[in-house]
Amino acid sequence: MTSLTFLGAAGTVTGSKFLMESADRRVLVDCGLYQGERRWRRLNWEDPGVRPGSLADVVLTHTHLDHCGYLPALVHRGYSGPVWATAGTAALADIVLHDSARLQEEDAAYARSAGFSKHDPPLALYTSEDADRAMGLVRVCDYGKPTTTDSGAVLTLTRAGHVLGSASAHLELGEASVLFSGDLGRPDHPLLLPRELPPAARTVVVESTYGDRDHPAEGSSTTVLGDAVRRTIGRGGSVLIPAFAVDRTELVLLALARLLEEHAIPDVPIYVDSPMALAALEVYQRPEHAAELRTEALAALMSLTQLRTAHSAEESKRLNNPGRPCIIVSASGMATGGRVVHHLRSMLPNPRNTVVLTGYQAVGTRGRQLQEGARELKMMGQYVRARAEVVTDEGFSVHADAGELLQWLTELPEPPEAVYVVHGEPRASSGLAERIREVLDCPVAVPRLGERVLVD
Questions:
Q1: What is the pLDDT of residues 161-190, one digit of tens each?
Q2: Assigned CATH for 220-396
Q3: pTM for the predicted model, two decimal places
Q4: Which fold has domain 2-213+398-455?
Q5: Which among 440, 354, 59, 399 is positioned nearest to 214, based on CA atoms?
Q6: Nearest 5°: phi and psi at 426?
């Protein structure tokens, strides 16, 4: 029989890795990096749970680090087979993985020079060369087109509407038929077209990032963001918006463009300080990806006349003390790394400034600490006083909420025989599982990390 092992995103919202095995054929669906709490991040350095050289295929549902960020490490450990993904995921993963490698190399170098690492010498999890090798393995699949992979599995990707290129993955291996939701987008994503209807599958693995809650009503994000910008600029401060470089930056800019068009916020400079975000924005604008986008939203995004870009390190450093009220959008979205950490270090002590959190903040991240009222944050080996206003704007989430996840499951052409709830904190996963049980007459389980089940 075919088995399914949960090698990641079980008991937590990061590190997605799901292993399908039939006889000696092995397929890994997603290859995510653990982020957040130290107990999870440590797993990035441990045995991934499968010998990389024994894998025949890797499938990526989308380009966020918690779904693709471990791939160069897998390659470094010996994987050399194909990596199946959509064109959008392939284009964005090239940016994301190289940026991740660069940051890890820089962090290791800084730890060596500053002497605060427990390791001697501090090493990067993987290098830029590993990212090069990983991208050389990528093979592009079209949405809706069944593809026979090297393991003999039949893979079909359907549009998930989460970020550009995101997909749900349906795999037929041996006698098993398993549908992996990936991260599902919202039906009213401001920039992307809605997700497609799911295909029939006997077993479903569904994410539960927001499995225990419903999102605010449409339009609330511009209200919260607009209020924060007006309040901050009015007292002579600046607004710092940590945002994921892929998709979230585009959504934040789109919201700012609409607020400016409505004269709802002051016309101050808007800086995008993230080379990765700027590269991702260029990918979104490519003609070959137009079929996934709402054309009117892309036009509004490009109407920003006050948009400024910071490409170089020197341009970024100047934004630590901008000298006049402004809005800075910078990665990473949970403030775990990247240029936004330097801006936080400079801007948090000033009570005139505001930090606007625009997405899910995983447990253990600086974003989550700010969200929960931390008075100090540790950055680059030192603690910094947090006096700036902190605002959480939940209206930007492009993860489906509990009701939308349940709706996706009820749209299956046939009821599944089993549902496994993953990629959520324990409360979110158990909450969604209970709601699924009320609607679907099938076994529903929240698997443990490393748990193996038989599927058919």
A1: 999 999 999 999 989 999 999 999 998 888
A2: 3.40.50.10890
A3: 0.87
A4: Metallo-beta-lactamase; Chain A (3.60.15)
A5: 399
A6: -50, -40
